[in-house]
Amino acid sequence: MTQLAVGDYLDNRYVIDRPIARGGMSTVYRCLDARLGREVAAKVMDERYVHDRIFLSRFQREARAMAQLSHPNLVNVYDFSHEGDQVFLIMELITGGTLRELLAERGPMPPHAAAVVMRATLTGLSIAHRKGMVHRDIKPDNILINSDHRVKLADFGLVRAAADSSHSTDQIVGTVSYLSPEQVDGSSMTQASDVYSAGIVLFELLTGTVPFSGDTPLAHAYARLSRDVPAASSRIEGVPKLFDELVATATSRNPRDRFEDAAEFLAALDDVARELNLPDYVVPVPTNSAANRAAAYPTSVTALNTPPPEPAARAFEERLFPDEPAGSTRVVGATPAPLAPPVRPVTAPPVPARVAPRDPAQQVAPRPAPPKPVSNRNALATTIFVAIAALLVAAVAVGSWWFGSGKYGELPALIV
Asked: Where is the Protein kinase domain (predicted)?
């Protein structure tokens, strides 16, 4: 499987931050959506499926169907892409953990806790069953617990797409412990097949174990063709008989004897919870989970400021605005303004550098005189203005003298 490095781009939009989990068919990475600025999860498929046209066609249809499903008990799917050698789903990022990790931390659950987990799981599964979908891989690893304690079902369509691909027709696709008999003997799959797997999950929640085992994975898988799932109360004390009956009906070897779909299983579970007057329960968030460990490291926001590779960014820009030069900025819907003439930048005079004091014995060169200010006035206009001003001042002075005390007086007659 091709490994992606931190900072790599998917579809020139999703920036790889760090891996969260790896499986046989895919690797899940925490990513940043550089366009919307939010954290998401990217499930990148194994390279063996990349060039399988049957897988790609099936998976694309399933991904579109998944994106149309929206419910608090389902992991939201945001995007799907087949880019070069990468096939991936972009999903809601769950920062809590898986039901598998919770079981590893706390062990078997009491009936009231198991009922709450199964109610959320079957609620999400019933939404998909109503749309005609079959999950094919119900197991604790695909039941997630978010940081707000909400239980969500994930991974619709992946196993179905792989099962129908040309490279998987000779294999049993799914997780051995939770396979329905139809998945083992090749019978047609129905929504009752998901009911069987959900019944195995309920058995494990109550007992902490799975019902079958074998020396090899194949022997483990074939055990369900000849044996019934035992009563949970036979493995652990404290399991009510009504829960044994729920598990027995859900895991009947004959699909016609099971609950028809997740909605019917959910209705029976609610009846049992009311009959036993089970208390409410808040599902705890796993503390030692891969998602929790990844969340302990803040996502690098610098990735949002790093543009995708230049050729890809330019190609994307040309697709949006084919008539405009690459690198230009445009507000969609705005009327372009006329271009203004270029403005010459005004530069400030250079600041003289600070010089260290010299030795007094050294001769100090005289500091050059500062340059004379250059006037932008016309010299002739200035001269004429000064002359007129001087004449006006002189005229005012003479007039003042004349009409004041400067008038000539008459001389008296001389006496001889």
From this structure: 14-269
Structure-block tokens of residue 30: 């925490």
Instruction: Give dist(CA 48, CA 251) in Å, integer.
Output: 33
Going by C-alpha positions, the residue among 31, 86, 49, 62 that lies closest to residue 137 is 62
387 SS3 class? helix
**Is 50 exceeded by the pLDDT of residue 170?**
no
- Return the residue matching tokens 């891996």: 19
| Residue 2, in any domain of the structure | no
- Domain presence at residue 168: yes
Each as own residue / partner, the long-range contacts of residues 219-224 (CB below 8 Å, 24 or more positions apart, any chain) are 220/176, 220/177, 221/172, 221/176, 221/179, 221/184, 222/184, 224/179, 224/180, 224/181, 224/184, 224/253
251 pLDDT more than 90: yes
Distance (Å, rounded) from C-alpha 78 to C-alpha 39?
12
The pLDDT of residue 60 is above 50: yes
Q: Which of 11, 33, 137, 244 is catalytic?
A: 137
Reported in sequence order, the residue ranges of 9-96 that DSSP labels E, i.e. its strands, are 9-10, 14-22, 26-33, 38-45, 77-83, 86-91
H or E segment and range at residue 405: none
d(CA 356, CA 345): 33
190 located within any domain = yes
For the stretch 88-122, pLDDT in tens is 999 999 989 999 999 999 999 999 999 999 999 99
Count Cα atoms within 13 angstroms, Cβ side, for 21: 20
Number of H helices, E strands in the chain: 12, 9
Closest CA to 141 of 152, 150, 133: 152
Q: Mean pLDDT of all residues in the chain?
A: 77
Q: What percent of the chain has pLDDT over 70?
A: 68
For 20-35, the pLDDT digits (tens) are: 888 777 889 999 999 9
| Residue 333, pLDDT score | 37
Say which CATH number the domain at 123 has.
Answer: 1.10.510.10
Q: Which residues contact 281 (CB under 8 A, 6 or more apart)?
A: 112, 113, 115, 116
Q: Is 137 a catalytic residue?
A: yes
Q: What's the structural domain count of the chain?
A: 1
Please tell me the distance from the alpha carbon of residue 3 to that of residue 6, in angstroms, as a whole number.
10
Count the residues in the chain: 416
User: Is the dihedral angle over the CA atoms 138, 25, 21, 132 positive or is it negative?
Assistant: negative
Which one, of 276, 229, 265, lies nearest residue 120 by Cα? 265
Range of the structural domain that residue 268 is part of: 9-299
CA–CA gap between residue 41 and residue 31 (Å, rounded)? 6
